[in-house]
Amino acid sequence: MAVNAVRDKLTDYAVFKDGRLLLGTADITLPSISYMSDTIKGPGIGGEVEMPTMSMTSSMDIEINWRTINDDLTELMAPVAHDLEFRGAESHFDSGTGQIRQIPAIVKVRVLPKTGELGKFETSSTTGSSNKMECIYIKVTYDGKTKIEIDKFARVFSINGTDYMADIRAALGL
């Protein structure tokens, strides 16, 4: 890794479904990872605390926006789980050497369809079609290292190699 790295931009990306390249994508909104929480108050607490339930996440949405109505849009509307992989190349500029390096960033997800927006017909314009999906599994690999892995049904919540749900699974005898 360069000492003077400037993490510049996502140079390019490709989307795959079940190992097959999808060609119609315009842009993708990856999920926000937010912890479920509950407000606690009472003796020994100076007010209220919105206490996160560590390792338990709220709903995670992914949205794929398309330029037109296409086969990929309608395929992702099928009421089944879909395995998607977003492969990106991030540009890192080393200001010391003047070299640009492309770093792989890969996001693998399993999603369930929530909505399929067909968009609108307007002359000489995109349709603004989109799929919104519930993410039930996500794995983020950056420069060959797994950074995030969340599997809601297997009770896995791993950040930088530490599975924070291991104690929960052990307590449940799983």
Structural features, described:
This protein has 174 residues and is mostly beta strands. The protein has two helices and twelve strands; from the N terminus they run ββββββαββββββα. It has helices at residues 71-75, 166-171; strands at 5-17, 20-22, 25-29, 35-41, 48-57, 61-66, 82-94, 100-117, 129-142, 145-151, 156-159, 162-163. The strands form two sheets. Strands 1, 2, 3, 6, 7, 8, 9, 10, 11 and 12 form a ten-stranded antiparallel β-sheet that branches. Strands 4-5 form a two-stranded antiparallel ribbon. A hairpin with a 5-residue loop joins strand 7 and strand 8. The longest helix has 6 residues, at 166-171. The protein is globular and about 65 Å long. The chain starts with a strand and ends with a helix.
Q: Strand percentage, roughly?
A: over 45%
Gyration radius over CA: 20 Å
Taking pLDDT < 50 over at least 5 consecutive residues as the criterion, the unreliable ranges are none
Task: Average the pLDDT over all residues and give the rounded result.
Answer: 93
Q: What does the overall shape look like?
A: globular
Helix content: under 10%
Largest sheet: 10 strands, antiparallel
Order of helices and strands: EEEEEEHEEEEEEH
Structural class: mainly beta
- Cα(first) to Cα(last) distance is 39 Å
Count of distinct strands: 12
Tell me the number of helical segments per DSSP (H or I, 4 or more residues long). Answer: 2
